[in-house]
Amino acid sequence: MASGGSVARAMLEGKKYVVRALTQDVTQPKVQVLRDLGAEVVKGDLNDKASVEAALKGAYGAFLVTNTWDHFSKEKEVCQASTFVPQGKVVADVAKSQGLKHVVYSGLENVKRLTNGKLEVLHFDGKGEVEEYFWSIAYFENFLGPLKPVKASDGDYYTLALPMGDVPMDGISVADIGAVVCSIFNSPEEFVGKAVGLSAEALTIQQYADVLSKGLGKEVRDAKITPEAYEKLEFPGAKEMANMCRFYQMKPDRDIQLTHRLNPKVKSFSQFISENQAALKSS
């Protein structure tokens, strides 16, 4: 619920909208934070049309985010397993039937379609099949977790392994998504029916490594790994990540200038790391 929570907090802080948050687990600490900020929290499931109808009843608009990584399944992203009702699209159907004015969907490109089947990135394709409207990119927060630098076995330095070559990779902090979505909701005449590719900035892997070096106080180097070598790494999703980077090397549409207009306070990667040094060093 990372980006969903960011959007809910930003809208609550803006005090222009009443916020209703739909979640499968209403006992999460993050959910309690939203309650404390004034959100109405309801238990529900995107696979359950009735709960979606209840959540959207009387709403002006909705922000929708699904998470392929929870189940690592394109099919579950797009379809409800038992009745083959599209999971993401059911929200669009309900929104239309209830007369919502504006729906923002956190989606990704359909890589398989765009590359004529040459590449398949399940967490992109699942979202891409649900008419993408709001495109996401690499989150800076991932550099504190799954993308964090790894200490090299042959020296006192760290390596950052992402198979991007010298092609810059776009990124943004999850925390900055909320203000962007608020701006989109506040300007429906400009954004309804349009896709928005977000990016705070685009850096090469070595540039990301240089920023991480300053944050860690240790040298971080680009591992210069190729997609072919990366997909052979022994962890779930290695091929998925390799294909994602192959797609990023094709430079999909991202708009840094528009992102900064929608959120003038959007952080650079350097600012993000500076504010999260403790998390970086403990991760």
Automatic annotation (TrEMBL):
Keyword NADP appears in the UniProt entry: yes
Keywords assigned by UniProt, alphabetized: NADP
Domain NmrA-like: 4-251
Gene Ontology cellular component annotations, sorted alphabetically: nucleus
Domain of life: Eukaryota
Alphabetized PANTHER family for the sequence: NITROGEN METABOLITE REPRESSION PROTEIN NMRA FAMILY MEMBER, NMRA-LIKE DOMAIN-CONTAINING PROTEIN
Family membership: Belongs to the NmrA-type oxidoreductase family.
Protein name: NmrA-like family domain-containing protein 1
